[in-house]
Amino acid sequence: MSKEERNINFMAARKPLGMLSIALVVISVILLVTRGLNLGLDFTGGTTIVVKSPVDVELSQTRADLAEAGFGDAVVQHYGSPKEVNIRVAPKDSVDADKIGYVVFDVLKAGNGDLELLKVEFVGPQVGDELRDESGTAMLLALGLMMLYVWFRFSNKFGVATVVALFHDVIVVLGLFSLLQWPFDLTVLAAVLALIGYSLNDSIVVADRIRDEFRNTRETDPVAIINGAVNQTMTRTINTSLTTLLVLVALFFFGGEVMKAFSEALIVGVLVGTYSSIYVVTNILFMMKVDKEDFLIPEPEELDETP
């Protein structure tokens, strides 16, 4: 369908969807304050055990053995080769921190007598707290730099609208992780930072088209102008989102436990980011009373050559 034929009135739903966005953000903030995030071992500290077997190790069986012994929250993954396994477990009140690694090794050795212990390391909660604080700082810094870029790339109104959309996406994704108590570790943090870049890119495509429409059309109604711009970018937005989601769904089903949380965060993020690039950005622009004067190119000043 050509852009001349497509004339979907996306802006007709902007007000109820704007209220939905506000509700989602408020609920997400309440969840983050009351329930918090289910922080993984990267942030809370714990013990890392590396073991080696003369044969390939089945991760599913290892997880089952650990769960039966009371370590159901252990993170298990191959470590360089299928014969080596890295296990991370959270601290337990019933086991001394300096002994928990050997307890885990004894559990695994009971099912595989040829298992060899390569390494046991304990990471205290203080390191996790520092990592959590530095991760939050990195996220805020990324959002701030994005705002500066958009501010200079377009105008101050677009800068505000785009950054509000970015905050909206991050808070809603974190709120869902809080609601469902999905584990939040460094892999998920990487997904959130990737989401910031994805959402910004999508918002810039829409913003660029809106700016061109304000400058080139004879239409004076901002609602009609923005609606036309969204129609023109919709094919690109859908194609980009669908191709990204195909990769993420493949990672979710075939990437193993390590990539599951990463793909979950980005699947939700892509859906929320696609929505926000249309309805959150445009609603903020309407609130700031965007009009054609915001996009006028200033006339170059003529120099008076008279001495």
From TrEMBL:
It comes from the Bacteria. Coiled coil: none annotated. This is Protein-export membrane protein SecF. Residues 107-289 form the Protein export membrane protein SecD/SecF C-terminal domain. It is a multi-pass membrane protein. Pfam families: Sec_GG, SecD_SecF_C. HAMAP family: SecF_B (MF_01464_B). Keywords: Cell membrane, Membrane, Protein transport, Translocation, Transmembrane, Transmembrane helix, Transport. It is found in: Cell membrane. Belongs to the SecD/SecF family. SecF subfamily.
